[in-house]
Amino acid sequence: MQIHIQARGLELTEGLREHVRRRLRFALGWADDHLRQVSVRLSDESGPHGGKEKHCQIQIEIPGTSDLTIEDIEVDVYVAIDRAADRAGRAVSHRLERLRDHRQSLPSRVESDDATTHF
C-alpha cells in the first residue's frame, strides 16, 4: 500500500507523518493486497465562527471499483486522522465485501467439455 501525505496550512512534521502512516497501517494493513494507493490531505481551515479546524481527507484507490473518500474535521489534527482512519477501515471492509459478493453472484464460466464428452 502506497501512502501519500500532503499538508496545507499546517506543518507536516515527521511525527505527524509517522502518526498518519501508523494509523493507516493499523486500520488498513489487513487489506494491503487489495489497495493500490492511499492519499491523505491534511489542512488547517477557518471554521464558521473564526476558529481553526483541522481537516483530514483520505482517498483510497481499490482496483475494480471507484475510489473511496473519507473526511473528518476536528479541532485537533491527530483526532481527525484517527477518526478518518477508523472510518476508512470500515469503509474498505464494506467495499471489499460487496465486491466479493458481487463476484460470487456472477455465473461461473462453462468449461469446455470436448475432452470429457463420451457418446
Report on the architecture of this protein.
This protein has about 120 residues and is α+β, with helices and mostly antiparallel strands. Helices cover about 35% and strands about 30% of the residues. Strands 1-2-3-4 form a 4-stranded mixed beta sheet, covered by helices on one side. Strand 2 (about 35-45) and strand 3 (about 50-60) form a beta hairpin. Helix 1 runs parallel beside helix 2. The longest helix is centred in the C-terminal third of the chain and has 29 residues, at about 75-105. It is elongated and about 55 Å long.
In total, the number of strands is 4
Shape descriptor reads elongated
Spatial sequence of strands, sheet with the most strands: 1-2-3-4
Low-pLDDT runs of 5+ residues are 115-119
**Proportion of beta-strand residues:** 25-35%
Given helix and strand content, the structural type is alpha+beta
Give the % helix: 25-40%
Helix-strand layout with pairing:
Elements: E1 2-8, H1 14-28, E2 37-46, E3 52-61, E4 68-74, H2 77-105
Parallel strand pairs: 1-2
Antiparallel strand pairs: 2-3, 3-4
Give a summary of the structure in a few sentences.
This protein is of the alpha+beta class and 119 residues long. It has helices at residues 14-28, 77-105; strands spanning 2-8, 37-46, 52-61, 68-74.
What keyword list fits this structure?
alpha+beta; 2 helices; 119 residues; four-stranded mixed beta sheet; 37% helix; elongated; single chain
